Amino acid sequence: MFTDHKNKSFKWCLLVSFLLVNIVMHAQERKVTGKITSSEDLLGLPGANVYIKNSSVGASADMDGNYTVIVGEKNAVLVFNFVGFQTVEIPVGTKSVINVSLKPDTKALDEVIVVGYGTRKKSDITGSVSSVTAKELTAFPLLNAEQALQGRAAGVSVMTNNGGEPGAPVKIRVRGGTSINASGDALIVVDGFAGASMPAPQDIASIEVLKDASATAIYGSRGSNGVIMVTTKKGKPGKPVIEFSNSTSVQSVNNKLHLLNADQFAAYRKSFTTHTQGPANTDWQDVIYRDGMISNSQLSFSGGAENVRYYVSGTYFNQNGVVINSGIDKYTIVGNLEADLTPKFKVGLNTFTSKQNKEGIVSQTSAGGTGAAGVIASAYRFMPDKGIYNADGTYTTTAPIGDDIDNPYATAMENILETISVTSRNNFFAQYQITKDLDFKTTLGLTDSNSQTGRFIPSTLIAGKNIKGEASVNNTRFSSFLTENYLTFKREIIDRGILTVLGGYSYQKNKNENSYAASRGFLTNTNSYRNLGAGTVFLKPDSGLSETELISAFGRLNFDYADKYLLTFTARRDGSSSFSKNYKYGTFPSGAIGWNISKENFLKDNKTISNLKLRASYGATGNPSIGAYSTLSRFSEIYYVSGDVITNAVQLTSLDNPNLKWETSYQQDYGIDLGLFDNRISITADYYKTITKDLLFNRPLPGISGIASQLQNVGELENKGWELGINSRNFIGADFTWSTNFNISSNKNKVLKLADNKDLLINSAPGHFLATESQILRVGQPVGSFFGFIYDGVIQQGETVLPGNFETAAGGEKFRDYNGDGKLDSQDKTIIGNPNPDFIFGFNNDFTYKNLDLNIFFQGSQGGQILNYTLMELASGNNNATTEVLDAWTPTNTDTNVPANAARTKRITSRFVYDGSYIRLKNVSIGYSLDEKIVSKMGLSKVRFYISAQNLWTITDYPGTDPETNYLNDTNSRSNTNLGLDYGGYPNVRTFTAGFNIKF
Amino acid sequence: MKKYIAFLCFGTMAFFSCSDLEEKPVGIIRPENFFNNTDDLQAAVNGAFANIGHNNYWGREFTIALMLRDDMSDIGDRTTQAARIDVNDMSMNDTNALVANFWPQSYVIITAANQAIEGAKKTPGDPAKVNAIVAQAYFARAFAYYHLVRLFGDIPYVDFVVNDVNQVNSLGKTKEADVYPKIIADLEFAKQWLDDKPKVKAVPGKGTAAGYLASVYLTLGNFQKAYDEAKFVITNEAKFGLGLDADFQDLFNATKTASLKEPLFTIDFNNLTSGNYGQDYTAFFTGSLKDDSYSYGQGFSVAVPSLKVFNTWDQRDYRRAVSFDTIIRKKTGPGGSLQVYPSSDNEKAPRPHIAKYFRFPGKAGANGRTSQHNYITMRFAEVLLTAAEALNEINPGTTEADGYVNRVRARARNKAGKLVSFPANVTPGLSQADFRKMVIDERRLELAFEYVRWYDIKRLKIGPEVFGPNGLEPHANFDPNRDYLWPLPGTELAINPNLKPNNPGY
After folding, report:
1. Domain ranges across chain A
2. Which one of B9, B13, B179, B346 makes the best mutation probe of the A interface by having the most chain A beta carbons within 10 Å?
3. Is the peptide bond before A658 cis (omega within 30 degrees of 0)?
4. Which one, out of A632, A732, A933, B409, has a CA that is 20 to 30 A from the CA of A479?
């Protein structure tokens, strides 16, 4: 039984694709000349192509559109083509001069959308796809193109997971989180390379977000979180275009907390305990914040010659963060090359290289106990009556109040936390038109990403003091090999009925390697982490390797009848090495129909409705977040000391899990596309409902199994919602134009089933809060729901206090007897908030007046709640507090919600849950383009200057620093449940930018 | 013109790959092909011991609960975690966070032991050598179950390897009375096969197994066997490398424990950690807030002596000086030099503090975390007192029993090298009841804050007395029908209803 499966036909062998094309020509050569013109203006078309059909012989038209080509056989046929024009074929016969006039290709004017393994005309799309343009991506300087998607596409929510931290990872959710413990990140596909990292925003031509199952099922087991298709810029035939852009930004923290000053702090402390006021009056936020700076440049060359097109670009991004000692710089080089070896045979290469160097500070720490507080959290907590240094020159610490932590200045300046990442990606493709109807494409890509994180905690800090400094170096390396091979067949099989069939297979192998070394006990702090051997105590080193393979077959069938009736079927079968023994393969089908009503006779000539399409789709997609080897039982090496010596020890850490499979999301989508007034207004609306089954869920096991939890397929989750996008060209004049894009989307998330349908409590509070639960997973409720007591205000004098209420004296906190049993106990904890917004939206306006352009972009979120651990900590007594405590309850100030000053346990209660709704002026920019006449005199083709501001203005009631907040949601198991939390995150920033673009 | 031949040949992707999607992990140990020699077996056995030296067990969660539960230690700073206060105040419920941590950890230890015991069957080598190693796993399993059964009574008993969760997710409880014979059987196996004198005290030896058997029998009230086992240890004292160490203080000095004779078994920490392994907090929990005496910083005043314990302890007793700190030092002198203050200057817990762990933790991290302590789970003095107590029950009034107590007291008279007259030898000829009272109290003082007292209170059923109004730590709500047993974690009962009902009162 054990060896059985090896003999089965499970072996998938990827066969060699080997194409040989032999073209043999016998020639009796003569010259044919002529002129290629445009039928519209009858002007010559420089760069237009002419070639002999079924051969590699051809030529390009010169500056005036004239061409010369040598023709051999009498029955040769000349093919004339040019981008944007219809192709024309003319038999040569005996002619020696052939003039041809090409008609503009109206089809090509129809927007083309990149979908998996191909493109589709927008009018033929049956799935739900949002497009984001290059202009939107580069509206303001950003390190990550992911971030530029915020507010741009309906149903796509984007947030960094650490405020304005330079280089903070960005979290994208397409149509809500479809998982609880598995990754919710969308699959990123760059120029066909699945699982790639994002290029710089300036190098991106367009981004398409594939949202419904019809669109994503072609990516099968990786499709359920949506797919982000990125197309980088390519060269166009014609003379070289050189573009240079540069911008400089100044940043400042966009909000600070109102904290007590030294005198207020001393008075506050003295109101409930003894306190000796310190000698200083320090505003720690002022100490650690500074003006940040971004400098962002790009230089690109693009163009094309006869059969070759190229795009080469270099970008440089440098940022000094708004918190001292934090910053990043990043270099990116992109090269895209395409060559037509013959008119039928095209090869190309996309290359991407980036190097990023991030100097970090410690923030969002998972615990803030002794010596462990992050820079931001400690700037809020640290007492204002102390200075940076003691009299003897050492750094001040919080001792003797509360947990002893370093002051924020020391934490920021003394800790070293550097990450250097280098990524390279090379993706080669070859495309061959086998017959008129059949096209073959093969790609071969390699990506390699190395990252080194160096960390040093010097002896000047509490955490390093007794151990005389601790240094560590962590290296990770990710490499991926991918080949995709597919055939596309397209033919008009019946009159006006076009069949497109795609079929292919792919193989991907990923490899993760890591190594870690650390030591302690240094004589000096000057070595940083660069000399681990100089330590005296060597910590447990670590290294590891994991490999995964993904083998897939995929196919898609489109049938379009008269451009009216559209049909799409998609399926992918994925086999993954990390799937369990009994479920190595999964199949993910989807289907969609579309009806272009506006093409029907009764609407064809309608003046108002220029486009009307109905769409419906249903399909299954997967989430394969099963780590390599995680379905195998294993012994792990654990740390053990015997006789004071570290000794080998192993322990069972996982059980065999032979039946674990991927998560499957079943999504239905109903959409309508409406174009009005010659498509001056276009509206897209979608309703969807996704049910995710077989959730990959870390099910808690009975303690007596010796294993805490096991990944199992339990539970169901529902996401449903609607999206609306409106693009309107409000005003199109010669001098003045105004266009508006508006999108809004709502997603409701609900747990349908859990393991045994039992509540599951989650604790996300910082470790030193000593909380045991802060969120709950409960059937019928959204993921991430906050869980705790309901705060009912302050106990007033003479008031009877509920038995079990933690405080009994007047001025104390009062909690609600939720279950009404006459006492307060853990049974009274309930859901006290929902972090999921009711809707999110973006509202963009572009104006041009002559050479001036203006962009105003609002973005917002409504109805999501935030549990603020920062404010909870600041209200707990043993640290600085917000000015809220000035309104604390006293026998003479009773009309207040702020309890009497005291040191309190940090308890998860509704007192610290706030409305996180906001509307934000994300961007406003004004640009001026120099007059073309002046520009051309300078030998340039375009010059534009602009100034802009980001996050200039925000409307919110949120009392924390910023409603765009996240806390520790960087790992798969936390990213879906840790929503709407705020603790010691890097502050968000307001940015002013000035820049220019020059095109040669 | 010559015919012209264009021959284009292009091949794409001369690439061939076969995969059956089988995972072939490198750098990962699979249990099925692990046990190839006795070193492998020892590593599996060590998995059990490593999990004893874990934050969720001896490092923090288990020991703080045991320490607080008795009448010797109380909560110092009442803003500490509620679960700790509940254990101390007899107000536990089934969501207690300490139990939630150490209950599963106990079974992690047991699972590791079961893995090793199963693995021993596959381990090639001299059977005697294999048995000598696997005997350590039998000891570890007995150690974990002995603690569990005393705290919880009836418990699920797992002595097999779990390959599939379904093997345990409906397993019911085994009666307390049926658990003890299994513990005894494990300890008997351990006693038969363990080395006489292991190289380090972190490895159990024959004497360790016998010492624990004595303790088990004492708990069961089988005094003859308790005496026999204790006597066996005492008789073979030299052979087993055991004995009393000269200076009582050295037992609690991390830099000296490695060379002591007295421990039967130690849980070793060496100031380094890996995640929760090697984490210990006992010094941190028992040290005084605001005390800058030591380079590792102030303690946290979580567990402090019950005031009456301090007040009633004879001031002449050297063990009192070792057990308590009554002063703190603050950096308030000129140039930040240390000045002595009474411990009442710690406003959160203005009282004496436990000194056994905070005073000499060796190299320690911030606040005395991650110390170098080798915590002694049982020491020779306890074996002597067990022998004395058991013998008094079988045959009262023997000089032999007096002698065992006198050895303990004689050592206590060595006040850091200076011989003093307190505590005096036992008055010969005590009645059985007086001797019993005397020896129980001797255990209380000698083994103060060493995780023995709660079990003594429970086995002797003296809760109403010691937590009564005249007890050392009055708790008016102490309920003998409830509080001798602790609640099983509610989450476990929810997953596995066969574990219901919980212990009475929870």
Report:
1. 30-108, 110-236, 761-928+950-990
2. B13
3. no
4. A632
Cβ A703–B104 below 8 Å, yes or no?
Answer: yes
- Fold annotation for A110-236: Ferric Hydroxamate Uptake Protein; Chain A, domain 1 (2.170.130)
**What phi and psi values does residue A129 have, to the nearest 5 degrees?**
-135, 135
B31-193+485-499: which CATH topology? 1.25.40
3-state SS of A757-775 is HCCEEECCCCHHHCCCCCE
Distance, in Å, from the CA atom of A924 to the CA atom of A829, rounded to the nearest integer, reads 45
**How many Å apart are CA B289 and CA B306, to the nearest integer?**
17
Residue A196 gets which letter from DSSP?
P
Asked if the C-beta of B276 comes within 8 angstroms of chain A's C-beta atoms, the answer is: no
Q: What is the pTM of this model?
A: 0.82
Would you give the DSSP letter of residue A124? G
Identify which of B156, B148, B142, B219 has the alpha carbon closest to the alpha carbon of residue B186. Answer: B142
Distance from CA of B498 to the nearest CA of A (A): 12
Contact B10 A21 (CB under 8 A): yes
* Cis ω before A384 (30° cut-off from 0): no
The single residue listed with the structure tokens 């020696």 is: A96
Token pair 């088990």: residue:
B216
Please indicate whether, in this complex, the C-beta atoms of A444 and B15 are within 8 angstroms of each other.
yes
The one-letter code for the residue type at A891 is P
B95 in contact with A at a CB cutoff of 8 Å? Answer: yes
Domain B31-193+485-499 matches domain B241-276+373-475 at the CATH topology level: yes
Cα angle at B101 between B97 and B106, to 5 degrees? Answer: 140
**Residue B457 phi, psi (nearest 5):** -60, -45
Beta-carbon contacts of A306 under 8 Å, excluding residues fewer than 6 positions away, are A49, A59, A60
Contact between A633 and B163 using a beta-carbon 8 Å cutoff: yes
Distance from CA of B389 to the nearest CA of A (A): 32
Test mutation, B15, B294, B300, chain A, max A CBs within 10 A: B15
User: Would you say the C-alpha torsion B342, B343, B344, B345 has a positive or negative sign?
Assistant: positive
Nearest-Cα distance to chain A for B317, in Å, is 31
User: By the CB < 8 Å criterion, does B202 face chain A?
Assistant: yes
The DSSP H or E segment spanning A979 is none
Q: For an interface test with B, which of A23, A73, A509, A640 has the most B Cβ atoms less than 10 Å from its Cβ?
A: A640
The CATH architecture to which A30-108 belongs is Sandwich (2.60)
Alpha helices (H) along B334-478: 380-394, 399-412, 432-446, 453-460, 463-466
From B307's Cα to the closest Cα of chain A, the distance in A is: 23
Task: Please list the rounded mean pLDDT of every run of 10 residues in chain A (1000 residues).
Answer: 37 33 46 83 78 78 83 82 79 85 62 85 86 85 84 86 86 87 89 89 91 91 92 87 93 94 95 90 95 94 89 94 94 94 91 94 85 92 94 87 89 94 94 91 94 95 89 96 93 89 93 95 92 90 92 93 91 91 91 91 85 93 87 91 91 90 93 89 94 89 89 92 92 88 94 86 88 91 95 93 89 93 88 95 92 93 95 93 95 94 92 96 92 83 91 93 87 81 92 91
How far from chain centre, in Å, is Cα A74? 58
Whether B166 has its CB under 8 Å from any CB of chain A: the answer is: no
Inspect the interface and report whether the beta carbons of A22 and B8 lie closer than 8 Å: yes
> DSSP H helical segments within A310-454, as ranges?
375-381, 408-414
Q: Which two tokens stand for residue B401?
A: 């029993």
The DSSP line for A40-58 is TT--B-TT-EEEETTSS-E
The third-level CATH classification (topology) of the domain covering B241-276+373-475 is: 1.25.40
Domain ranges of chain B: 31-193+485-499, 241-276+373-475, 282-367
Q: Which amino acid appears at position A175 of this protein?
A: R
